[in-house]
Task: structure prediction
Amino acid sequence: MNLINLKVNPSFYLPIHLILISITLCFILTTSCSEKETVGFQFCDNFNDSLDCTEPKTENDLVVLDKSKFKKENPSYEDFGNFLYFTARETPGFRLVLSKPWNGENAVNFRSGYKAYLLYGSAKERMEGNLFQPNTIVSFHYLGALLKEEFRHLGIAEKPFQLESLGTITLTYLVEVPGFPPITKQRSIQLLWK
Result:
């Protein structure tokens, strides 16, 4: 049989072309989606001016508080929340590194669509501190403000405070970054006196 003179029906090539086009499109879409969804998340409670993390944290941390600075006599839970806010200045936060600046959007749209929340028990508060650079975002919130809100909800804000009664504090971070799927992370904190 002579292959050179073999006649092939032109409709034979159509399915091959469709398969090649489909494979190419899948590759392009997969590559662009995976780049778009790349985001680095790091628990961090303090940052420098360049938004580098200066106080990295983990999913489970011990936070040691200086009891000598908690000078309130017969303190309530509300007093302890104020101590965390004004004196200890505990600020749970995180740092995000994006795969591309502003995730391809303009800075104004990106910032207006960005939201970060911190949850504890039934208290949910929008993070107070948000700092932006084209590829990096840091957010933080005052632990004292969040705990005070939960103490009020539980009806214990004015009751005598005992650190041991808090146990492990489980925080949930909810983050909405334009162009990315929502981020949900949990972190546990144990507060101790020194």
Summary: The first helix runs from residue 13 to 36. The chain has two domains: 8-37, 38-193.
